[in-house]
Amino acid sequence: MSGNLYVGVDLGGTTIKAGLCDETGKLLHTYEGQTGSGRGVDAILQNIAAYVRTLVAESSYSMDQVVGIGAGLPGFLDLENGIVKFSPNVPFRNTPIKQYLEQELQKPVVINNDANVAALGEAWGGAGAGIPNAVCYTLGTGVGGGIIIEGRLYSGFSGMAGELGHMALVPDLEAIQCGCGQMGCLETVSSATGIVRMANDAVYRGDKTSLQLLDNLTAKDVFDAARAGDEVALRIVNRAAYYLGKSMTMLATIINPQRFIIGGGVSKAGEVLFRPIREYFYEHTAAAAREDVDIIPAQLGNDAGVIGAAGLVLHMQ
């Protein structure tokens, strides 16, 4: 095969996934290994470089075809200098990851936030393919996101654009403190963590619900109960959907995307979640901002991170 190839790295607290993509965003080969967080920063960096080499060596392609390497990283980043200032799941503190990997692999390296990278993956080769303006939500333990404007990932002044989970939307009397320190963030009600918290609060209050019968509640339990008609579970799901829809209404009037894409584990709930999100959005958004706008599930699943990371190089050119 001729043509340019791009490597993407998706760094997690437990595993590192590397992927090789062509210019269309097609994933050609993947490799996955342990992060090795317990062995320190140097071990993690060495693992990333080793996994990239193994990825290419195991494929039917060569390192000469690789134009560059992109990395999706959790935490707070200095994008311009390629430094991880702080990461919650790996022991990176002011770690010059770009400099290290460029020296080790002799290829250009671009980094970005992992949620932004997942959004770019969906925009390039997933649910947003062919859509130049889109917003992607990642609903999991927290709420992440990414904004695509005219086909390019928008990072903002300091790289914080797309931190959708930290939009303060919940009124003061209902708000609780988010992990970021703010009160009433979207993440506190629309993440898996927020949904479980609301369910446990309902059980603790003695609300009449089938959730009372379950131990170690999960977000899936809440969605399953909602599908079965449990009124308390429906109330919790509708609250999570309400604030997601509200955030989309705000974004629709600010950046006017054509598509909202929802990924992450919570998105697997399906129509019990998507239906009320759409209902709120279409009812409360100005006609000109909602016309021809759709709200759909992500398509790439766990591959979004590596595909988007690979796309960082192409989209930075």
Number of domains: 2
The appropriate CATH architecture of the largest domain is: 2-Layer Sandwich
Structural class: alpha/beta
Gyration radius, to the nearest Å?
A: 20 Å
Shape: globular
**Oligomeric state of the chains present here:** single chain
**CATH fold node name of the largest domain:** Nucleotidyltransferase, domain 5
Number of helices: 10
Low-confidence stretches: none
Strand order of the largest sheet: 3-2-1-4-8
Q: Tally the beta strands.
A: 13
Mean pLDDT: 93
> What about the largest sheet?
5 strands, mixed
Tell me what the structure shows.
- The structure is a single chain.
- This protein has about 325 residues and is an alpha/beta fold.
- The chain has two domains: about 5-120 and about 305-315, ATPase, nucleotide binding domain (Nucleotidyltransferase, domain 5, 2-Layer Sandwich), CATH 3.30.420.40; about 130-300, Nucleotidyltransferase, domain 5.
- The chain is about 40% helix and about 20% strand.
- It is built from ten helices and 13 strands.
- The strands form three sheets. A five-stranded mixed β-sheet has the order 3-2-1-4-8, with helices on both faces. Strands 11-10-9-12-13 form a five-stranded mixed β-sheet, with helices on both faces.
- Strand 5 and strand 6 form a beta hairpin.
- The longest helix is centred in the last third of the chain and has 24 residues, at about 230-255.
- The model has no long low-confidence stretch (mean pLDDT about 95).
